[in-house]
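[job 4471] stage=fold_predict status=RUNNING
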Amino acid sequence: MFQSSDYLNLLQQLEHFFQDSTSRKTMAEPFYGEGTHPLNPAVLREKLPLALPAEGKPLQKLNDDITNYLSHAVKTAHPAYFNQLWGGFNAACFMGDVLTSATNTSMYTHEVAPVATLIEKTLIAKVGELIGFDNPEGQFTTGGSNGNLMALAIARHRAFPKLKQAGLFQQPRLIAFVSAESHYSFDKAVQLLGIGSDNLWKVPADADGKMDVSALKDLISKARYQGAEPFFVAGTAGTTVRGAYDPLDKIAAIARQENLWFHVDGAWGASVLLSPTHRALMKGVEQADSVVWDAHKMMGMTLICSMLVVNQRGAMMSTFSAKGTEYIFHDSEEDPTDLGPSTLHCGRRVDAVKLWLAWQHLGDRGWETLLDRYFTLAAKAESIITAHKSLELVAERESVNLCFQYIPESNRYSANELTLEIRQRLIDRGLAMVNYAELDGKVFFRLVICNNQTRLEDLEHFFESLIAIGQELDAPVL
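[job 4471] inference complete, writing structure tokens
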């Protein structure tokens, strides 16, 4: 039987956790509840009572388990959490998560998710309008990787609609094109779809990490010369490492000329469409056939909150519909109310409500303010890097990703080694969590600005801490 008092302790513990995570008192608050140093998996497994019991226990007895979990959880709402392409905390979004968990439904039929279905369709229409699509359709997915997989499947179906029945046997060799700096999810997608990784051709990127469109044209010609069938090209709006935007308008022109499905992986960077100041980065996106957009990244929604939006109504239904569904889908309308038949999923969590509530709270203007603030902070970070003698950008900043190294003066460490050592000490001391990446043999910090809890003073403290540790490590041995 539901007793509200059973859940009050959980809410109180969560309140304490988030207050610690977003504290403005000091940047020295650790990322882990029991100390600043994360435990390795073997030690953590030994420390925690993870075994499942034969006999259960009352809800009140779960408090220790909840405390253990929170004590070792990374505080991704911490103002110095820069590690991934997501972070921060949005109260309206959290309310949506609680609401949808409490009502516990799935998104396959309007019958069991009446309001959620209408909310999802409203959001797809709004996002499609921002992209510039005239008559969009789409759905929330289990992440950008899943959206890229679905887009490839739709493109393949468009090129060879009989594959649903006949399979790939004796079909032409299909070739898909992505940037050399595209997300690895495309590699997985072609493997799962039977296209094969040998047939995912990586188009070289220029010095700024953008797809080289002249190289794309050459590769398309090469594929046709070999008797293959080019059918798909993806541009990236915000690459994972550099945050670079491919020239979408130029890719779109080639896709039209060559009759290729043009997909935009905007999982990271499509949210700039919310800002009139920065939406020019997405120039040409309105000419795409499909777009992936992750609201759990720049928009700060809790994981997962991702959309696939398509500019050809009916494309999803024709690709993903199957026989034998009459027991659950009873809708015979031309534009079905049920979302289930036109997706890869059956059971699917309600992810639209949390974004809808957050949008109700912030409005268009609130999103614009948030995105513009990220770019302002990124510009400030860039100015700090370029002004300091020991810091050096390794890639030009285009959006809110900053790739840089600490350049040692002594020969105690190489720049690559120093990057890794500084990073680990920032984490161990509970000062900041920032990721690293590697390009052209250089290991460097990848600082990402997408945490709504981060303020200018947090960013300045991050660099002060990083520089102090760098100087400490690089100091000459006396």
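[job 4471] summary: The domain at 1-104+361-478 is CATH 3.90.1150.170 (Aspartate Aminotransferase, domain 1).
[job 4471] exit 0
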